[in-house]
Amino acid sequence: MNIVKKDIDQNNATLTLSIVKSDYAEKVEKTLRDYRKKANIPGFRPGMVPVGLIKKMYGKAIVAEDINKIVSEELYAYIREHKINMLGEPLPNETEQQPIDFDNSEDFEFIFDLGIAPEFEVELSKKDKVKAYSIAVSDEMINNQIVSYTSRYGKYVQEETVAEKDMVKGEVLELIDGKINENGHKISDAVLTPSYIKDEAQKVKFIGAAKGDVIVFNPQTAFENEAEISSLLKISKDQAKDITSDFQIKIEGITRYYDAEINQELFNKVYGEGVITTEEEFRTKIKEGILETLSSDSDYKFGQDAREMLIAKFDHLTFPDTFLKRWLLATNDNLTKETLEEDFPKMIADLKWQLIKDKLAKANDVKVEIEDVNAYARKIASTQFAQYGIVGMDDDILDNYTKDMLKKEETVKGIVERVAENKVFEIVKNSVKLDTKEVTIEEFNKMFEN
Predict the structure, then answer these.
(1) How far apart are CA 197 and CA 208, in angstroms?
(2) Does the predicted TM-score (pTM) go above 0.85?
């Protein structure tokens, strides 16, 4: 077999593969013999079908199949051997390729188009500048987190008189002409909260009421919508629309929620037994947690800015646009020409970043070890728990949660890519000049608007 590479320009080339009978004859004969062993043709015992008959029945198909296999193997072997930095996959040439006639020809020529990645090197110095933001931790942020903890770890207490935010429990009965409607709605263990009552005149009936008191109220007047009425009376929303009568509730229980006090009990619940012993340590620990979260946010923003700087730095790079568009349309059934034209600039930016990132990773021998994957997965798990206010999670629980995450191949792949990219960003951070600026959380968040 003969393979000839023809460079069209720096981003496009063709590979011509010329194949003659001697290149595939032996392979075809072996395939024919294999077919003969397996063929089940009426009138012949297994393995005794004449080779000539097999060749007549399957010969051309076998030739086509074996030639295609040989062409594919040799094509990619050539690309690997000559270290061609190819984009996408080879595509059959649309202009010079002649029709392939397996019925009448013995020699064949296959021509493929290649898209070639641009040649460049990534060199970073202090002449390259990237913004880096340090987000200040304010007392308000610490105080808000403390409020969140005291609210989350508070407790319910039974009271004697009703306050606006209390939960009032009792039997609710429908009335008619001021008396109990024996055929009306009756709800045992009904629960309502005065703060949810929209009508002030209805609300004040409850404020200051005590256990054992009977309050007459009108649900339709009291509540904002049918959903609240249906929840209280345990009926459908459609039924709730027709409720107009008064009801009474005999107060059987009053439950009030008290925020937790800032003391050792709270410290233990948040960070574990004895880890924190004073309010000052508590505030310091909270600040550390906020700083860790903000640091991740700052790193994310740095990654965006570093990526943007590097893409702009290599704005001169050229790509085989026509080839790439053709390849993308050929390999994505749901992609239209209109969508491709609209999204193509972003695709090129993503491709450029991928090439830059790969070169930086290779030049700096970036490797992702299993320890890196486990640590990043554990960080994700810890962050997810923290979103629900669960900090100081037991190591065994975190480890088991992490193991479950890493059972999914797609999750592992995503983590590996993210860890590798983070390592590249760290290389960039250590190589360029950082334009560092401290900002408030409000100023930082505005950077992501629009």
Answers:
(1) 15
(2) no
